[in-house]
């Protein structure tokens, strides 16, 4: 049984009679009344594929991220037309389905605009499903378009044989596959109302909580005649939800009078304005900030004096008020490791996190609002609260306290890195320390690491919104390279650096990614944290079966990546720059050489060989 919002389709039958064909061919996507409406304009098209692209562009898509698929010729034909005519909507050949979805994910993170992803029928959708699921869980909007062939060769109005593909199709197309991992899917039965169907796909993708929607378009429908399409003159604006004035007044009173309010941030960093608002809010009341883990964006400047690292029980135990902003997992487990005696307030556009099967955050006040609206309005409410002026000395004392603690924390982390600067094999703390010194604050970092992520966060000093992203999508691996390329496509004037564990690297569609990087001149730097192992698996074995068979025999199945590949040599195949680093003194020069290659238009791989150490430094 399909979930609400997902449409089971009946098999589309061909139009067999001349009368039916005459009625359908050339029909507009509007009723007579709509043709004269001031809300739409009629655009001449050369066929359905041309019309679909007109609608994709009208609803804000800049790119069609595509994997090859034999049923998409009606779109490829007119994408050439769009390129020849200098239109905004352009085609990106991604060579692999997961790369297409990951690139769209990265581009949307930078632009907040839903893009189109083309995936081949059934098998293509399955190939991209891990990334689609990640977009669904992380609330990243996109419109996934997949194909379908529903007739046999002797009844195909397109006049060509696709009987083999038809025999291989699933009974429900992709609908039964899409239902659990997308917001909405629909099989396009006819072109008569395709303008409204495509519009709904984009509008639902962009509506909070955002996420992927799916359109299945048959080759038969795409073969019909179509001479014009209705394009809306005004696309509905995405208006974020705002909290009520009364609840803002109540929360502002609680914040200004709290003995120790603690702010926990999850993923408000999708919008730079929200980050700026959070900084102003915390400085107004001297509230320390904890970063929920894992963090997907730079949601609060890592080096800001009030940033106190990741959620820690000591600070939460001291808090009498905790404000959670855009985080479904501010601490874990939710029922046991939260604050002992504090009022908990949550702000999110979906505060109950309705996409999750199970969620039990103990919260006293839940505010259903978009943080990019709620935070600035909360700032204004605090400023207008008379008690705020009376407590300025208290706030300044807190700022001084946490500034000193922040300095001590960074000093400890720097000392930890300096203590291992000469270690061979290289310690990841030293690698992260050097990375922080080499990469400027305008560069964009994409991290697809698990074991070494805490070392990275302990050394990084990211200060600007939009310069740090996590590529762990819904728990799946394989998005790092594609996400880096999508961000590069949206920020061609900036350096993009993908930091990736060797385990994650093996999950990525490497040939497809580097080939597309070369083809579309999207150079970026890949730094491989190479410890020759899947240490998260080994760690679980050691925790659960200490002294067991694996431990006694020193045999940890599924945890090693050996013999160690020469990852840097891959660069040569696509005209890139590659270097392997085993000496800690050569990390800086290698990173600079890689960035220089990127500045010259070539992608680069710096493979850093690390020691087999699990570090969870905070």
Which secondary structure elements does this structure contain, and how are they paired or packed?
Elements: H1 18-24, H2 32-35, E1 40-44, H3 48-58, E2 63-66, H4 73-84, E3 90-93, H5 97-111, E4 115-119, H6 123-137, E5 142-148, H7 163-168, H8 175-178, E6 184-188, H9 194-206, E7 212-218, H10 219-222, E8 228-232, H11 245-257, E9 261-265, H12 272-285, E10 289-291, E11 307-310, H13 313-318, E12 321-325, E13 343-348, E14 365-368, H14 371-383, H15 386-390, H16 392-418, H17 428-438, E15 444-448, H18 453-459, E16 468-470, H19 480-490, E17 496-501, H20 502-507, H21 510-519, E18 525-530, H22 535-544, H23 549-553, E19 577-581, H24 587-599, E20 604-609
Parallel strand pairs: 2-3, 2-4, 4-5, 5-7, 6-7, 9-10, 9-12, 10-11, 12-13, 13-14, 15-16, 15-17, 17-18, 18-20, 19-20
Antiparallel strand pairs: 1-8
Characterization of this structure:
- This protein has 618 residues and is an alpha/beta fold.
- The protein contains 24 helices and 20 strands.
- The strands form four sheets. It has a six-stranded parallel beta sheet with strand order 3-2-4-5-7-6, with helices on both faces. A six-stranded parallel beta sheet has the order 11-10-9-12-13-14.
- Strand 19 (577-581), helix 24 and strand 20 form a beta-alpha-beta unit.
- The chain is globular, with a radius of gyration of 26 Å.
- The chain starts with 17 loop residues before the first helix and ends in a 9-residue tail after the last strand.
- The model is unreliable at 8-34 and 614-618 (pLDDT under 50).
What key attributes describe this structure?
618 residues, alpha/beta, six-stranded parallel beta sheet, 24 helices, 16% strand, globular, disordered C terminus
């Amino acid at each position: 049984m399909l979930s609400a919002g997902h449409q089971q389709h009946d098999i589309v039958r061909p139009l067999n009679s001349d009368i039916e064909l005459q009625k359908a061919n050339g029909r507009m996507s509007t009723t007579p009344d709509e043709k004269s409406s001031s809300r739409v304009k009629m655009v001449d098209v050369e066929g359905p594929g041309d019309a679909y692209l007109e609608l994709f562009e009208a609803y804000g898509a800049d790119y069609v991220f595509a994997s090859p698929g034999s049923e998409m010729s009606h779109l490829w034909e007119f994408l050439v037309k769009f390129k020849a005519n200098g239109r905004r909507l352009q085609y990106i050949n991604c060579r692999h389905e997961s790369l297409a979805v990951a690139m769209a994910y990265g581009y949307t993170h930078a632009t907040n605009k839903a893009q189109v992803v083309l995936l081949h029928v059934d098998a293509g959708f399955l190939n991209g499903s891990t990334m689609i699921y990640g977009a669904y869980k992380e609330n990243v909007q996109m419109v996934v378009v997949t194909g379908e062939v529903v007739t046999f060769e002797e009844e195909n109005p397109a006049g060509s044989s696709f009987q083999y593909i038809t025999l291989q199709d699933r009974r429900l197309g992709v609908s039964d596959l899409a239902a659990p991992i997308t917001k909405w899917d629909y099989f396009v039965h006819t072109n008569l109302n395709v303008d409204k169907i495509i519009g709904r796909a984009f509008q639902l993708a962009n509506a909070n909580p955002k996420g992927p929607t799916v359109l299945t378009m048959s080759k038969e429908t795409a073969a019909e005649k179509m001479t014009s399409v209705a394009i809306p003159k005004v696309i509905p604006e995405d208006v974020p939800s705002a909290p009520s004035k009364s609840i803002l007044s109540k929360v502002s009173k609680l914040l200004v009078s709290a003995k120790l309010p603690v702010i926990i941030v999850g993923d408000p960093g999708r919008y730079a304005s929200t980050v700026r608002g959070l900084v102003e809010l915390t400085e107004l009341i001297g509230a320390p900030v904890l970063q929920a883990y894992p963090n997907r964006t730079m949601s609060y400047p890592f080096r800001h004096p009030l940033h106190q690292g990741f959620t820690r029980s000591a600070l939460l135990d001291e808090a009498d008020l905790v404000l959670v902003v855009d985080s479904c997992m501010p601490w874990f487990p939710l029922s046991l490791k939260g604050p002992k005696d504090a009022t908990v307030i949550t702000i999110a556009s979906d505060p109950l996190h309705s996409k999750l099967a199970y969620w039990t955050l103990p919260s006293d006040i839940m505010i259903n609002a978009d943080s990019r609206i709620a935070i600035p309005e909360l700032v204004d409410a605090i400023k207008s609260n008379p008690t705020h002026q009376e407590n300025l000395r208290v706030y300044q004392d807190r700022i001084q306290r946490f500034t000193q603690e922040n300095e001590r924390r960074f000093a400890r982390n720097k000392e930890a890195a300096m203590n291992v600067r000469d270690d061979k094999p290289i310690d990841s703390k030293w690698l992260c320390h050097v990375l922080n010194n080499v990469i400027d604050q305008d560069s964009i970092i994409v991290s697809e690491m698990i074991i070494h992520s805490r070392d990275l966060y302990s050394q990084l000093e990211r200060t600007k919104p939009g310069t740090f992203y996590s590529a762990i999508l819904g728990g799946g691996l394989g998005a790092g390279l594609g996400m880096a390329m999508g961000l590069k496509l949206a920020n061609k004037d900036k350096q993009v650096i993908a930091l990736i564990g060797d385990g994650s690297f093996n999950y990525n569609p490497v040939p497809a990614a580097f080939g597309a990087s070369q083809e579309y001149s999207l150079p970026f730097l890949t730094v491989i944290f190479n410890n020759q192992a899947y240490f998260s698996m080994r760690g679980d074995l050691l925790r659960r079966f200490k002294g067991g068979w694996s431990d006694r025999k020193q045999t940890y199945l599924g945890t090693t990546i050996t013999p160690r590949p020469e990852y840097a040599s891959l660069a040569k195949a696509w005209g890139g720059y590659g270097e392997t680093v085993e000496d800690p003194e050569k990390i800086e020069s290698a990173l600079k050489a890689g960035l220089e290659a990127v500045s010259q238009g070539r992608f680069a791989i710096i493979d850093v060989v690390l020691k087999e150490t699990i570090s969870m430094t905070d």
